[in-house]
Amino acid sequence: MQLNKIKIGDTVRFLNSTGGGLVTNIDTKKGLIYVEDEDGFEVPVLETECVVVPKVNMETNFPVKDFSQKPDAQIVQDIGQKIKIEESEPIEIIETAEGDKLQAFLAFIPNNIKNLSVSTFDCVLVNDSNYFLFYNLIIGDSGQRKSVANGIIEPNIQENLATIVNTELNDWENLQVQIIPYKKDKIYEYQSAIDINLRIAPLKLYKLHSFTENEYFEEPALLFELKNTQETLYAEISADDIKKAMFQKEPYNKPSLHKEKSKPNTEKIEVDLHINELLDNTSGLSNADMLKVQIDKFKSTLEENKHRKGQKIVFIHGKGEGILRNEIVKLLKTQYKSYQYQDASFREYGFGATMVTIR
Fold it and tell me: 109 near 120, Cβ under 8 Å?
């Protein structure tokens, strides 16, 4: 029995990727719903990977409870069973040798680096440590403060906190970042909570040299390390800088796709699931056809290595809409339950890769 029936007209958000929108169609046979995002594009996504965003009373700003359906005994029983299953199968956290040193970063990534004057910017939190982080990101000055993102991020994970349009940049000039690190059900050394202020002049996000290559992202990014300091970090922009930025165009040098990386483990196998790496020509293929090609490659690779116990295989699937990653995780939880999996190293693969260990 379905616990949370999604209907046409509902507003949903995606569980395993950034985004969401309005439900426009439902394919019950395939378990797919079609979601129209803010740009008007219709995206197919598994119904199980979405959650309904509750309606809000505009006067009180509290969610409006839906009294149209009353819970019955079977629903309560199903919910209780679901909770028991989730508790009996906790997610295994894989720690790294250097991860007990708390390292966290706030990154700003332009979505159109060739034209920064009209680009939007992704604000991403990077947790490069073995700790869970409870975070709170606040914008505005003392008189007008607003929490724009808060929650818990797992160890060794990146999370997109917000996408900023150029008309909002002035609101982001003053940032406060609060972080509390901890481990679940484990003993760990004392870690101080982080509470820092960042001041970023909006013009800095319009200057090409502000964005540099780094070990966490394939794209150039403006990266701030989050640690307690006595002085406020300040992106200083002089009057001369402003004048030069207004009248001088800076050349765009596309970063090399083959940037030098640390030497990978020789025992590791890397499989790039990007469709252009698997097929020379995709003309005439639907999204579903291309997804099948990628999943078939994933399955055949595991089949070829099923007798190699301890073999590590990195599947590079990219960031995208998260559909391919969701399908991979679904297969690992069902057909390949004995295999161990985790997000691959940020340092080696950037954003969008999953490492599977044959068991």
Answer: no
Least-confidence region, from 3-7, 69-73, 275-279, 284-288:
69-73
Confidence of residue 75 (pLDDT cuts 50, 70, 90): low
**DSSP output for 119-130:** --EEEEEEE-SS
Alpha-carbon span 105 to 87, nearest angstrom: 31
Mean pLDDT of the chain: 79
Q: pLDDT digits over 236-261, tens only? A: 455 565 556 556 554 545 444 444 44
Q: Which residues pair with 347 in a beta bridge?
A: none
- What is the token pair recorded at 95? 């720690």
β-partners of residue 22 are 11, 36
Query: Which of the 8 DSSP states describes residue 349?
Result: H
**Strand runs labelled E in 292-343:** 312-316, 340-343
Phi (first) and psi of residue 64, to 5 degrees: -95, 125
Residue 144 in 3-state DSSP?
coil
The two three-digit tokens of residue 11, written as one number: 């507003």
Nearest to 313 by CA among 351, 354, 263, 269: 269
pLDDT in tens, 212-232: 888 888 889 999 999 886 443
Q: Rounded CA gap, 130 and 137, in Å?
A: 21
8 Å CB contact between 155 and 104: no
CB atoms within 10 A of CB 194: 17
* pLDDT the model gives residue 37: 82
Beta bridge partners of 270: 314
Contact predicate 237/247, CB 8 Å? no
Residues 203/337, Cβ–Cβ less than 8 Å: no
Averaging pLDDT over each range in 36-50, 73-87, 298-312, which range is the top one?
298-312
Tokens 């922009």 label which residue? 237
